[in-house]
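Usage

Read records sequentially. Each one opens with the input sequence:
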Amino acid sequence: MQSLPDEQSGQFRLPSVGCLFVGGGSLTGKSTAVRELLENHRLVFERPFQHLVLAMGHGDVQQYERLLRMFKPSSRRVIETFDAEQWRAMTFRPGSVFVVDDFVVEVGKSPWLEHFVTRGASRAGVLLVLISQMIHSKTLPYLATALKNAETILLPVHLRNRMSAANMSIQIFGNSRTISTAFDLARKNAVRYLIVNMSPRCDDRLRLTGNRSGAADWVAFVENDR
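and closes with the structure output:
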């Protein structure tokens, strides 16, 4: 995988602190996208990660085996249960990435998620990678908070995710068109993943990068017009 090109600086890097929200339907490539990103973290993030905390609910930890091996045993940790009080008390070393996969129901109901996304991750200098099949749910009130406060949003460009693109757009921009239009453009150009850059520093134009061949062709950018 090559580094991600940017029109102005020649290189675009994803934020290494805050929240990366990865949404989309079941079996559309969310976990695969996260593994690809993190296995190439030195190329695609602003700063490389030194420590990995992986929280897996009901999924298969073995799918992250290669990623886990990239970190020393003393620099990696696997969590298999969710306890709001224990999670709130967790401490992170600088340069940590905290991947939460298959815990969306538990964390979506917990004030822990709102606290960590809005204050905890930034204060600790941690990147929270939240993988979710759901974009919005009345039964998961804190999920919308995570989506709206994420620095970066990633959506695999899969036909089954077009409704997710529309729902994301409604939640963030108040219309179904902003992200859906970019999603359709990404599909047309055989781009693998759509990234919504929520940073106010994001370029104001809709941008599509890549030459549609190989692992580097995977990202489209959407302006932040909130």
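Summary fields computed downstream for this record:
- The domain at 18-222 is CATH 3.40.50.300 (Rossmann fold).
- Residues 13 and 46 are 5 Å apart (CA to CA).
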